[in-house]
Amino acid sequence: MGRILAFIYGIISYAAFLAAFCYAIAFVGDFYVPKTINSGEAGTLLPSLLINTALLGLFAIQHSGMARPGFKKWWTKIIPEPIERSTYVLLASGVLFLLYWLWQPLPATVWSLENEIGRWILWGLFSLGWGLVVYTTFLISHAHLFGLTQIRDFIKDRDLSEPDFQTLNLYRHMRHPMMLGFFLAFWSTPEMTIGHLLFSIATTAYILIALQLEENDLVKAFGERYRKYRQRVPKFIPRPGHKASIDVEEKSNESSQSLSETLISEE
Ligand SMILES: C[S@@+](CC[C@H](N)C(=O)[O-])C[C@H]1O[C@@H](n2cnc3c(N)ncnc32)[C@H](O)[C@@H]1O
Fold it and tell me: Is residue 135 part of a domain?
């Protein structure tokens, strides 16, 4: 019975994420959906700024607070571990829908690009950004990020698996490709309004802070391996000609690792 309920819960939570994510693309892009970042009657500036900042703050607290290992340790005394991640995803999606619903439009124009080619370039970067976000979820482990692996492990009566530390593909060139995707998606618009600008500035500031917390946790989890990775791989912008030096370092790491493994197996 517990397994069936966990399965249903996981599916509902994943469906909520999919809906919140697809809505986010239309909300930020200001198209197709009934309520977007710019739609509706413009309110008074100060109250609108305060409400929008509070909504973004709520998302930041939920998203980063509940992701910390200390919180998870406490939280999993209340909620079963296999559905912890699904609960996180469900609440994050709920907070996003609250934000879409209560967001106060501030549609005064900050910039408006008339040039047709320039507009297409910006829409291209917008699409690239969202594509990058989706792609990187699969590089880390899409199913684990959204709680599905944990539920599968529970149903199959296995120990909960952890995703591997990823240093290949895009993660070979930058440490945070997913966040780079969000930056592109949030900033690339031919019609920047006050409301959209507030959204882009606040989310950028939040991501930069959240990444510090994430990296601290990664250092605690992976120790020297993450420290070395952080030293040689840039945060967002790949360094030209950097790939070769990584290859050399990785080869030497591989050989030193296999050497130490040999030493262990010989002991
Ligand atoms: C929303 S993802 C963002 C990942 C990364 N900051 C990025 O922008 O591509 C956050 C999760 O990814 C994990 N993570 C970050 N870097 C990772 C890596 N190189 N390999 C595996 N997991 C990683 C973090 O531990 C966290 O659980």
Answer: yes
Query: For residue 166, is it within any domain?
Result: yes
Residue with tokens 């290949």: 168
pTM equals 0.91
pLDDT one-digit tens code per residue, 94-138: 999 999 999 999 999 999 999 999 999 999 999 999 999 999 999
66 lines ligand 1 (CB under 6 A): no
ipTM score assigned to the predicted complex: 0.98
Q: How many Å lie between the centroid of ligand 1 and the Cα of residue 120?
A: 30
* 94 within a domain of the structure (yes/no): yes
Residue 197 Cβ contacting ligand 1 at under 6 Å: no
User: Can you give the residue range of the structural domain that contains 154?
Assistant: 2-257
Number of domains the chain contains: 1
- Could you identify the atom of ligand 1 that is nearest to the CA of residue 217? 25
* Nearest-CA residue for atom 18 of ligand 1: 166
In this prediction, residue 254 has a pLDDT band, given cuts at 50, 70 and 90, of: very low
Mutate to test the pocket of ligand 1, among 140, 203, 217, 227 (most ligand atoms within 8 A of CB): 140
In a domain, 265, yes or no: no
Closest CA to 185 of 198, 203, 167: 203
Q: Where are the beta strands (DSSP E) in the chain?
A: 109-112, 191-193
Does residue 107 contact residue 38 with C-beta atoms inside 8 Å? yes
Task: Indicate the average pLDDT of the chain.
Answer: 91
Q: CB–CB of 201/225 below 8 Å? A: no
For ligand 1, whether the C-beta of 62 sits within 6 Å is no
Distance CA 170, CA 26 (A): 26
Ligand 1 contact via 218 beta carbon (within 6 Å)? yes
